[in-house]
Amino acid sequence: MGSRFDTIRFRKTEVIDLLENLPAVKQEGQAGLDTAIELETRLEQCGQYGVMAQQFYTWGQDIEAIARSNKLTSSEVRVNIAKTIHYISGFKRKKRTFAQMVQHRSSKGCKKWEPPIGTRSIMGQGYIGVFVGADYPGAQKSGWMFEHRLVMQKYLGRPLLAWEIVHHINRNKKDNVIENLKLLSRVDHPTCIDCPYYKYYIDAHPAT
Length: 208
Fold this sequence. Notes:
Strand content: 5-15%
Number of strands: 5
Helix content: 40-55%
Largest sheet: 3 strands, antiparallel
Order of helices and strands: HHHHHHHEEEHEEH
Shape: globular
Strand order of the largest sheet: 1-2-3
Distance between the termini: 37 Å
Radius of gyration: 19 Å
Number of domains: 2
């Protein structure tokens, strides 16, 4: 089920209540199951921060333990959880991914906030992104990079060229192990067996 920001909204207090009672919510018939699935979808989009929110509210772990396991300070964990609750509430926000929300806040003059290096999140078209920092070779200005390109780049030991495309062999864009990735050129990519992501890539990376 896809995320439905245009139809489902939660107050932040409701998000917290749902997280604290997530197992019980799933037992409340189809409506409860739909709500739980939507909530978990949004948590997944927040990457590791979504996990922190579940650790604290659903699993009852204390802030200090979460901080130690993520190598963060307690205050950083609290901030990250608060941002997660703000995002998944769905209020006063256009349809954006978690990574896009962070970029939007920075572009509007909000206090600059960046996730820790290595944070994973769902990005545009459902691809997985990794925060590597704006100075990392091949990264976007926001500091995010598609995980499949990052994996291929590390495997080759060099930055990818603009015309190089990383194709998912099994067509699962979340399966980013190197065995499932194939390096192609922009010219060769259309010859893949009806690759469903070719049009998106061409639209996002027009030829210069």
